[in-house]
Amino acid sequence: MAEPRGSYWDKRIETMPRPELREIQLAWLQWQLRRCYEGSAFYRARLDAAGLHPDAVHSLEDLRRLPPLQDEELAAEQAAHPPYGRLAVAPEPSWRTTFQRRGSRSAFWSIRTEADEHNAASVAARLLWQCGARPGDVLATLDEPDGLLEPVVAEAGERLGCSIASVDAVSPGASTLAAAPLPTMAIITRAGASRLAPTASRAGPLRTLRCAVVECLHVAGPPALDRPSNTAALAVFDGYGPERFGALLAVECPEHAGVHWAEDQVLLEVLDPATQEPLPEGQAGVLAVTTLVREATPLLRFWTAERAALVSAPCACGRTSARSWAV
Predict the structure, then answer these.
(1) What is the model's pLDDT at position 155?
(2) Which residues pair with 259 in a beta bridge?
């Protein structure tokens, strides 16, 4: 891991020229396709049906021959082969976390290996540093009980030199509030935010926060907390990391010009909602995500059903990773 300096946790990755980034993405994609083909009957059948053998993939564009993966397909696969389906690529003895999240469309088992968890924590540390976390901060994760995000943030906090506050420390009226260290940064999911009082973003314990990272159900939609005025103590940074991906994948920088994606982890496409064909940069469509490094349950061209626009022009913060916003 690179030593953090200034505004970058890992300057090499965060400011990498895009041609170099695409080479890295292609190498990871070829690795992921090969292991999916060899280790998952579900993916082998999909790749064969598309006429896309891993050895025939020589560019990122070759992946477009594979139809987008729909949520309903995953649900059907797990119903036909309970409980996890044949999606998992890593062998079961290497599984560390299994978690079922019921989304708006279907239920889905998310699985992570130990390597997945450590990698997710590494990426989370980078993204939290990007939006202001520093050694000495007190982090808290307001998530659903037994959610996947909390252990990732806890390990990320160790890497950052931060301490971790109890979830109760950010809950209004919590009995532990007086004894617990108050967080200076909270990672708040929509599910977790629903447990707060409606006025919690304006007063009470959350007023002690320097900033809050919000995991959105949308790519960069309205945050779970109302955005405060410019004079308020609470700053909100939109983020993206739904349970099915098992990681925090994108967060805003201080420029607030869209969420920056960890593109060394994922390959992004914006597709026409009718034809499912790729759209030109900057044009709004449906976001499709391919997880490049995830071991246990990778997702290939997953159709998120979330409308977004994507740009790759460097941000004023100096980062070269693609940015997106909801539309």
Answers:
(1) 95
(2) 252, 324
